[in-house]
């Protein structure tokens, strides 16, 4: 059930902005990706397919390579071998201008929000609209209001991150991630630091955005509840290798002892130590 290598992504149409359409295709494809830091092999021949319009979750414990995989997809980390294609483009071969254009088609919900403490909520949500897209101020204000409402927040534009609860900060970060209308949303550990109720609400928001906006979601998490709540497709990393992938139902049926121990949160098994 581990994802096999895939043929190169092909596109049959163009999006409204002239970029390749991903309807019916894969948003991201990793093939044989290897990454080491010195003598430590972090990713060891990883294959992964992220289907368009779906929610894909990548599971794995601490040190499994999840964060490195995400940084590689975002072009923030180089890789030693293999191929990484995002929206049909080989990430490692992009010029600076092409990379910037590609990143404007992506949004990122960082693990701890990564809001700018010195900026108001409105300035945080409108950051890319103002500083990258150069949108007029009245349009920025309207877009911010709409996106904050979309994540369940009203009349908070003049507040600062320090005045918000953890759940509200996560919602503001989510509003910022979608404000520039990305085609793919990368989500890094969305429920970290949140109580069970707020975790459930954040998961519901991600699903609503996927359904309402049609945005493809790739979620990196070790939270089993979040993974199974969100996923159309799942994959699991262990020691830099993709040990299983499939639908949530298929993952539950996997007999591999490593996968079974992780999914059942068993204290004893091959993951001990």
Q: What can you see in these coordinates?
A:
The protein is α/β, with parallel strands linked by helices. Helix content is 33%, strand content 23%. It has ten helices and ten strands. Strands 6-7-8-3-9-10 form a six-stranded mixed beta sheet, sandwiched between helices. The chain is globular.
Secondary structure layout:
Elements: E1 26-37, E2 40-51, E3 55-59, H1 66-73, E4 81-86, E5 89-90, H2 96-103, E6 106-109, H3 121-125, H4 127-131, H5 137-150, H6 166-178, E7 184-188, H7 196-213, E8 216-221, H8 224-230, E9 233-238, E10 241-246, H9 248-252, H10 257-264
Parallel strand pairs: 3-8, 3-9, 6-7, 7-8
Antiparallel strand pairs: 1-2, 1-4, 4-5, 9-10
Quick synopsis:
The chain is an alpha/beta fold and 273 residues long. 33% of the residues lie in helices and 23% in strands.
CATH architecture of the domain at 26-105 and 182-264: 3-Layer(aba) Sandwich
In CATH terms, the superfamily of the domain at 26-105 and 182-264 is P-loop containing nucleotide triphosphate hydrolases
| Overall strand count | 10
Main beta sheet, described?
6 strands, mixed
Query: What is the CATH domain class of the domain at 26-105 and 182-264?
Result: Alpha Beta
For the biggest β-sheet, the strand order reads 6-7-8-3-9-10
Instruction: Point out poorly predicted stretches.
Output: 1-24
The CATH topology annotation of the domain at 26-105 and 182-264 reads as Rossmann fold
């Amino acid at each position: 059930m581990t994802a096999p290598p895939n043929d190169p992504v092909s596109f049959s149409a163009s999006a409204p902005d002239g970029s390749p359409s991903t309807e019916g295709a894969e948003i991201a494809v990793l093939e044989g990706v290897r990454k080491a830091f010195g003598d430590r092999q972090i990713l060891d021949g990883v294959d992964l397919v992220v289907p368009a319009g779906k929610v894909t979750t990548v599971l794995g414990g601490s040190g499994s390579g999840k964060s490195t995989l995400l940084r590689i997809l975002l072009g923030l980390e180089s890789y030693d071998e293999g191929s990484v294609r995002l929206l049909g483009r080989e990430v490692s071969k992009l010029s600076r201008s092409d990379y910037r254009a590609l990143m404007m088609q992506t949004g990122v919900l960082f693990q701890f929000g990564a809001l700018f403490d010195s900026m108001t909520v409105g300035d945080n949500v409108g950051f890319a609209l103002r500083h990258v897209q150069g949108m007029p101020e009245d349009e920025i204000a309207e877009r911010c209001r709409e996106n904050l409402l979309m994540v369940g927040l009203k009349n908070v534009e003049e507040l600062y991150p320090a005045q918000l609860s953890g759940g509200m900060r996560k919602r503001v970060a989510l509003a910022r991630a979608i404000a520039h209308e990305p085609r793919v949303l990368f989500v890094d550990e969305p429920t970290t630091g949140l109580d069970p109720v707020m975790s459930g609400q954040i998961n519901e928001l991600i699903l609503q955005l996927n359904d309402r906006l049609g945005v493809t979601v790739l979620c990196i998490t070790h939270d089993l509840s979040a993974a199974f709540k969100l996923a159309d497709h799942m994959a699991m990393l262990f020691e830099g290798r993709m040990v299983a992938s499939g639908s949530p139902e298929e993952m539950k049926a996997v007999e591999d002892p490593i996968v079974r121990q992780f999914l059942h949160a068993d204290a004893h098994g091959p993951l001990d130590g």
